[in-house]
Amino acid sequence: MAEAHTAQGAAHHPALQHHFDDMDQQRDASSLGMWVFLVTEILFFGGFFLAYTLYRHQMPLGFAAASRHMDIMLGTLNTAVLIVSSLTMAMAVHSAATGRKRLLQLFLVATMILGATFLVVKAFEYTHHIQHQLFPGASFRFPGPYASQAEMFYSLYFGMTGLHALHMVVGLGILSVLLWQATRNRYSPEYHTPVEVSGLYWHFVDIVWIFLFPLLYLIGRHAAE
Amino acid sequence: MSQHVVPRKAYVAVFAALVVLTAVTTTVAFLDLGPWNTVVALGIAFTKATLVVLIFMHLKYSSRLTRVVVAGGLFWLAILLALTLSDFFTRGWLVVLGS
Question: Chain A contact for B79, CB < 8 A?
C-alpha cells in the first residue's frame, strides 16, 4: 500500500491475479481475508469458552474434581510442543520470505512432525480417559458425589479439545500442500502468500490451545472440596 | 503496508518468552493461591496470546485495516461473553415476586 507505484516488472509476476493492482495489494487482501476467517473462528471457539465459563460457575466443585484427573504434565508437554511448532512455522514463513527453499521445506516438515506429536499425545490422553470411563455417556463413571457435574466437564473437554484437534488435522493437510508446492518451486520472496496465511492459521490454533491448557488442566486444582 | 520481514531474533525472543511463561503457569498451578490461581493463569494466557498475535502473526506490522478487523472480532467476542455472563451471573441478585 505504501509503495503503490510498484515497478512495472512486478506487475507482471505470474502469480499476480488480474483483479489486483500489484503484489502488495494482493498480499494484503489475502492476509485480510485470512484474518476475517480467523475472526469467525474466534467466535466459533468463543461459544465453547462461554459454555465452559457458565458451567464452571454453576458447578465449581464438580469441575474442580474432574480437572484434578487431568494429567498436568502431558498438558504442559503438549503446550511446549505447540509453542515450538509455532516457532518453526514462523521460521518457515521467514525462510519463504527470504527465498530459502531448503530451509522452508525443513521448517515445514518440522512443523508437521510437531503437529503430529501433539495429536499422538492427545490420543494417549483420550485413550487413558476412555479406559477410565471418563467419556460422557452411558458408561461414564466418576467416584464421589459430583459424577454428573464431572460428566459436564468431560463433555466440554472432549468437545473443545476435539474441535481443536480437528483444526490441527486440517493444519497438517494445509502444511502438506505447502510442502508439495515448495518442492515445485512455487514460492519466492515476491510470492509466498499461501505460506504466510497458513502461518496465521497455525498460530491461531496454537492460541486456542494457549487458553484451553489453563482452563482444562490448571485452574481447578485447588478449588475447595 | 508492504512486505515486512520480521527478523529472526524477534521470533526467538517471543519463543523464549512463551517457554518461560508456560513454565511459570504450570508451576503456579501447584501453589494454592485461592481465586488468584485463575487470575494468574488467564493473565499469562492473555500475555502469551498477545505475543503470538503481534509477532508470530505479524499484526504489529499489518495494515491498519487488518488491525481494525481483528479488534472488531475481539469486540464481538466481548459482547458475546459480557452480555451472556452479565445475565447468568446476576440472576440471584433480585428477588422476583411471584416466581
Answer: no
The mean pLDDT value of chain A amounts to 92
SS3 B52: helix
pLDDT of residue B99: 62
A39/B6 CB distance under 8 A: no
Q: Is residue B98 part of a domain?
A: no
Q: Hey, are the CB atoms on A221 and B19 less than 8 Å from each other?
A: no
Mean per-residue pLDDT, A191-195: 95
Q: Is B50 on the interface with A (CB under 8 A)?
A: no
B62 touches chain A (CB under 8 A): yes
Q: Do A219 and B38 touch (CB under 8 A)?
A: yes
Residue B94 placed within a domain: no
Q: A120-123: which pairs have CB atoms within 8 A and are 24 or more residues apart?
A: A121/A74, A121/A77, A121/A78, A121/A81, A122/A78, A122/A161, A122/A165
Residue B62 lies in a domain: yes
Report the pLDDT averaged over residues A156-175: 98
State mean pLDDT over B76-85.
96
Name all domains of chain A by residue range, CATH numbers in brackets. Answer: 21-218 (1.20.120.80)
- Whether B31 is in a domain gets the answer yes
Collect all residues of chain A within an 8 Å Cβ-Cβ radius of residue B48.
207, 210
> How many domains does the structure of chain B reveal?
1
Specify the pLDDT at position A223. Answer: 65
**Residue-range definition of the domain harbouring residue B14:** 8-88
Q: Which chain B residue's Cα is nearest to A212?
A: B45
Which pLDDT band holds residue B66 (cuts at 50, 70, 90)? very high
pLDDT at A1: 46
- Determine, for residues A222 and B45 on separate chains, whether the beta-carbon distance falls below 8 Å: no
Contact indicator for B1, A2 with CB cutoff of 8 Å: yes
Residues in Cβ contact with B76 at an 8 Å cutoff, skipping those fewer than 6 apart: A39, A43
Average pLDDT over residues B4-12: 89
Q: Which chain B residue has the Cα nearest residue A67?
A: B29
A212: its cell numbers: 484451553
DSSP category for residue B61: G
Under an 8 A CB cutoff, do B11 and A90 touch? Answer: yes
